[in-house]
Amino acid sequence: MQEQSKHLVAVSAFVQNKMGHVLMVRTHLRADTWELPGGFVDAGESLELAVCREFLEETGVVIRPIGVSGVYYNERLHVLSVVFNADYVSGEITIQPEEILDAKFLHLDETTMDEYIKRPHLKSRILDTLRVPRSVPYETWNLNPPDYKLLSRIDGEQQSSKRVFLLTGKPRAGKSTLIKKLINEIGSETWGGFYTEEITNSINERIGFRCVSVDGESVEIAHVESPSQTRIGRYGIDIEKFEEFALRVLQEAMTFKKIVVIDEIGFMQNLSLSFQRKVQEIIYDNRIVLGTVPLDSHPGIDKIKYNKEVQLVSINESTRDMITELLVKDILKALDSNTL
User: Is 59 helix (H, G, I), strand (E, B) or coil?
Assistant: First the structure.
């Protein structure tokens, strides 16, 4: 049997400031040349999270990947390098001196390239990114047939144009916690809608769910002891109670608030056809939306995930704080540009 080939995957990012200058680094390993900040992907790490982590470690700058500008292969070392186009989000340049000699924004074009970049394969990556009119989409999937889970997607366009922000992640990853934090950061007077909370017993076992409006009204929608014949797993679902609450709260949010919270657009909630229609109405009505969706595939929910207005954001405990900063900036941009 032929031995399976093994490759390393590296990522880097092309980030410009308002003057069009590119943030570059010089490393101890390659002190003769400037290059894009980046590094190797850890086992089990998605490429877009890896490039954000490496960029932050090397420069102190938080970025948001937009899409892939090029893919390159080092045949001798078996390294596959993926270059992302990315936006600057925040931070001042702060280097790791044990790894990085210098980091700064440089004016790069075909006339100045040779002054800074001394290795042809690095030059090729910069020139490709400068010449490419738009980036290529990138997706992260968890494929375990028959389960197909879309974890994240960046579609090659500026994220500032998005107005629907959907969080996804494993159960108890902190999606609802993040939503509450964003509401507090931006100001609760701007928000309407609802989020979902777990109901737990005395030993912290989950036994049900309640929906809570942004202004504090709540209703229990699922419980292990519910007599309802409509069930998902061990939970009985009160569809009528959920519909009465969710439709009223969402309509009030559309009428009086600038941002609509829908947590969660999930299997349980999609048992209600009226709720499905209301979600579609909100998304197609040019509203700013912050919601959550499950990782698992669902025909109706998948259509929402792939809507061109949607920014799908995968979160876990280690990325939650960084993503909070990104989302605050994106939502404030959406508020500034919203005409409703």
Answer: helix
